[in-house]
Amino acid sequence: MAADYPLTMLHRDGTLTEVLYNASVCRDAGGKVLGGSSWPGT
Asked: pLDDT for 7-22, tens place per residue?
C-alpha cells in the first residue's frame, strides 16, 4: 500500500501539479492479485 506518496503531475502545457497519491492492491485468500485501487490524498 502506498499512503500519501508525493507525486508531481506534468500537464500538456508544461505546468506541474503536486499531489499526494494513495493506492492499495486487492488479493484473494490465496494471495493472488485481483486488482487495485487508487485515490487522491488529503
From this structure: 899 999 999 999 888 8
